[in-house]
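Lab notes, practical 5.
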Amino acid sequence: MLARIALLTALLIVLISVPPFLGIGWQNAFTNMLIASLFAMAFNLLVGQAGLLSFGHAAFFGVGAFATLHLMGAIEDRIISFPTPLLPLAGAAAGFLVGAFAGYFATMRSGVYFALVTLAIAELLHSLAPHWDGLFGGEAGLSSMRMPWAGLTFGSPLQVYYLALCWTVVSVLLLWAYTRTAFGRLTLALRDNEQRLRFMGYNAHTTKVIIFSISTMFSGIAGALLAVSNETANYSLFSTHVSAQVVLHTFVGGSTVFFGPAVGASIFTLFAFYISEVTRTWLLYQGLIFVLVMLYAPQGIGGLVQAHIQHWSKISWPELGRVYALAAVVAACFTGAVVFLVESFAIIFSPEYAAARGRLGTWPPFKLFGVEWEVFSPVTWIIPLGLLAAGLLLLPNARRMLRETWDGILERAEAARIAQTEIQLAGAVER
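Output from the prediction step:
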């Protein structure tokens, strides 16, 4: 427990101290990272802890953003006076109220039917928003400005970042406190066996409505922070892309681990910011990462980290280090081959290359990684195919070694658990 507190404290110190030394672009990226992390953790309260998979959580994220923009507009027009740091309260209230109303109907069903109802709610808002000028600003959306408060102008990205950091930390602490309450444990019971919950005398539908509303409230706070950061929002916030993104962040990070969704959101947000500046095919790489994680680490990145921490004392680190080194070589081979082939074909089939080919009447060399490559030269394609072949040759051995190593770790952990149980039983018999 002390180690986790120390790790979280160190992380918080980094989040506070590093951004002032970064450029404006990275400061905005870190703000988006915090917003995505909070949204993913709010979503995980529903899917990871209550077992209710929503495909339309963008609806409540967007509602929080538009409610905040309306409040910002009222402040800007001097209709009311309201502290700028407390603007996300508008998103929280809107998210909670709309979530309670929508959740009452959505939670009448479970499983895939619940997911489809939430998807329909988001799509309904996505269809209505462009035509509802008074509430959503039509296709152009709404815009407003952050107003100064208590000597703070909130004109710089750094001040907005610290505002988002404060709200994210407070919200995460509240979500963690929720898991420690009796109702938080009831949430887990709902996920594990809803029928047993009914037999114990609890109203499962009311419980699900409350959980849904709490999740949408924190989603509304995340949307509010986005509105404060961007000072604008349009109907695209209700799109399936936003809903799918939070699902991706949550499952890649690990829905069974409290901070897992924040890990997934942070990785993908910073990945998108950096890689999108390098290549136009970054969405393809993001999709590949998602597929690989779901196939080979369905517990997510957070689940992998938790497994290492849980079995720390049972791991032979030199042995595991050798296995991971081989796995890293295999990953590097596949990554090099895939990146080379994807980027090469992206250039060859691009409109710019087709125009150059038409102008020159031949297949000109293309430039990749600072080197010019001939399209029909065997050397060009031997490199990625050689990396792919090397990866395929090493893969079976790496998988076998990895499986045997972790089987040994789990066997030692099980043996230690059995020995501890026997000691406890012996002590109980003596007493």
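Observations recorded by the TA: The longest strand covers residues 366-368. The CA atoms of residues 419 and 425 lie 10 Å apart.
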